[in-house]
Amino acid sequence: MRILMISLTLLLLSACLGEQTDHSATPIKIKFAHVVAESTPKGIGAKLFQQRVEKRLAGKVVVEVYPNSQLYDDNKVMEALLLGDVQLAAPSLAKFGKYTKKLQVFDLPFLFDNLEAVNRFQTGPMGQKLLSSMTQSGYLGLAYWHNGMKQLSANQPLRVPANAKGLKFRIQQSHVLQAQFEMLGASPQKLAFAEVYNALQTGVVDGQENTWSNIESKKFYEVQAHFSQSNHGVLDYLVVTNAAFWKRLPDDIRTELEQILAEVGLEVNRLAQELAMVSRQSVMDFAQETGKTEVLTLSQAELAQWRKAMQPVWKQFESEIGQEVIEAAIAANE
Fold first, then answer.
1. For every residue of 219-260, which 3-state class applies, written as one string?
2. N or C: where does the chain have the smaller number of CB atoms within 10 Å of the terminal CB?
3. Cα–Cα dist 235/137, whole Å
């Protein structure tokens, strides 16, 4: 009987160990949800991340990518992160004002001269510090990904700020962007990215602001008659996760994922600048071939008017963002 009991004990122990081994062999699943097309910088970045994880963490981590708002729009995905329904997202930086006021710095109009200045700020001490500015809400920023500088569009020419007065502009969920258009005497309308094309087509809004790659990939040129090369703001993304989920990952896996994200970020940022030029040319080609739209190159004098009209927004949000954050961003232009 004693031998039988020992045998049963060993059998049960072996089964338990087998179950633990099977459980530990189950790969970690990471759902990566975003709202844009796969041909955009963010879409390409998500696929690159998936491919490199598959190669370097095979059997340990599986990444599933859901583009084009297949799972959630940018407003719902943050809740989904906390619930564990997705593990990675990359909303526009404009979407985080609800969780930290400091990231509103990226929405300030005419703050950054170009993407090189944005990159210097993001990779600098202040930009890196901002990645952890939402941990009290349960979120952790992992990486900044570029999309590009924003352009203005409407169904009438936008050469000077007075041209925007009275028009309805689609904006992201951002108090700074709301104030930006209110400074122009325009009416900002907060809409999800997936709704923009139809809103422009049906006249729910008269215009919008976006990057060349988003304008081209979503074919906004089909429903907008005039584009102004304003470069008045930046539209970048923050790869974000549930802070508790990220902390629970095994150290070696977390380190490798962070390394992959850093590598992919370099690729995304390089592609963003290349795609901006290609997408802008595509819109210009469409304009020339069809005559249905036009791309306006604003003079320095005209750009100065836009800058003067929008810049009071800096002072309006200085106390929320922090003077030291704004000064660090300004210094990145030098």
1. CHHHCCCEEEECCCCEEEEEEEEEHHHHHHCCHHHHHHHHHH
2. N
3. 23
**Nearest-angstrom CA–CA distance, 68 and 60:** 27
111-159 per-position pLDDT tens digit: 999 999 999 999 999 999 999 999 999 999 999 999 999 999 999 999 9
Residue 24 tokens, joined: 């530990």
What's the CA gap between 107 and 95, in Å, rounded? 10
Query: CATH homologous superfamily for 2-331?
Result: Bacterial extracellular solute-binding protein, family 7 (3.40.190.170)
Q: Which residues pair with 105 in a beta bridge?
A: none
Nearest to residue 135, comparing CAs of 96, 190, 107? 96
Does pTM surpass 0.70?
A: yes
Contact in structure between 39 and 217 (CB atoms under 8 Å): yes
Helix residue ranges per DSSP H, 71-207: 74-83, 115-123, 125-130, 175-182, 196-202
d(CA 201, CA 211): 19
Domain spans of the chain, in order of start: 2-331
Q: Do the bridges between strand 234-242 and strand 88-89 make them parallel or antiparallel, or are there none, so unpaired?
A: antiparallel
